[in-house]
Amino acid sequence: MKLQSFYLLTVFFMGLFVLKSQAYTATISENLSAFCRVWIEDSNHFRIAGDGKGHYRGCGSVDFNHIDFNDQQYYIVVKVEGSTKEEKVRGPFDSNHSCSLYGEVDSWGFDC
Ligand SMILES: *[C@@H]1O[C@H](CO)[C@@H](O)[C@H](O)[C@H]1NC(C)=O
Ligand SMILES: *[C@@H]1O[C@H](CO)[C@@H](O)[C@H](O)[C@H]1NC(C)=O
Prior knowledge:
Layout: H1 3-21, E1 23-33, E2 35-42, E3 47-50, E4 57-58, E5 63-70, E6 74-80, E7 88-93, E8 97-104, E9 107-111
Parallel strand pairs: 1-8
Antiparallel strand pairs: 1-5, 2-3, 2-4, 2-6, 6-7, 8-9
The protein binds 2-acetamido-2-deoxy-beta-D-glucopyranose (NAG) (2 copies).
One 2-acetamido-2-deoxy-beta-D-glucopyranose (NAG) binds next to loops.
Signal peptide: 1-23
Protein name: Secreted protein
Keywords: Signal
């Protein structure tokens, strides 16, 4: 391998390392006695992380849900299964962020 290619590869992998280490984490404390989906959308409102379409799960345990994704401007979206309330969208955020999800199926809150 030519020395020049070696340097290029080194720079390339260092770049990957920097990209990988620049991840954001959204932390959601979940205390909701219902089934929900929590996901992350990019600035174009495409889902980039979190619970997939139709993948509702119990969000009842008082627990911290950590969602990791590449650093970029993002929104956090929550939808509660069978709720009369619409999904809630918070953001845009451009750093790590923590939110709190609480309540019951028809009276829930999402504070960021
Ligand atoms: C965001 O969180 C990740 C993982 O928890 C951490 O590695 C990173 O340093 C944090 N970034 C900032 C800007 O605090
Ligand atoms: C979780 O929600 C229940 C019912 O609303 C409440 O009584 C309890 O204090 C909450 N726990 C935490 C840790 O917020």
